[in-house]
Amino acid sequence: MAAINKTKIRIINRLYEAGYTDEKAISKLKTKDILDLPDLTRAEMKMICELQEAIKDNRVISFLVDGGKEYADET
């Protein structure tokens, strides 16, 4: 059974706390905006980019689930 990835939830919480409170705002994040977020690791920055792709593809739930990379392979 798949489980929710707690790291990805934490990333979404950090975005929310930084004022990015909906999919539209997250989708509009530029690289500079991501770099300006405090104390993000490179892996967390990559997750934000993956979240943006998941939003674009309407597959946020798949993104949140461990092993959710399958969303990128589906068409």
Structure in words:
63% of the residues lie in helices and 0% in strands. The protein starts with 5 loop residues before the first helix and ends with a helix. With 75 residues, it is mainly α. The longest helix is centred in the middle third of the chain and has 15 residues, at 42-56. It is built from six helices and no strands. The relative contact order is 0.19.
Shape: globular
Structural class: mainly alpha
Low-pLDDT windows of residues: 71-75
What is Rg?
Answer: 12 Å
- Summed over residues and divided by their number, the pLDDT gives a mean of 89
Question: In what range is the share of β-strand residues?
Answer: under 5%
Please give the count of helices: 6
Please give the number of β-strands: 0
N-to-C CA distance: 23 Å
Largest sheet geometry: none
| Residues in helix, % | 55-70%
- Secondary-structure element string: HHHHHH
List the helices and strands and how they pair.
Elements: H1 6-17, H2 23-27, H3 31-36, H4 42-56, H5 60-64, H6 70-73
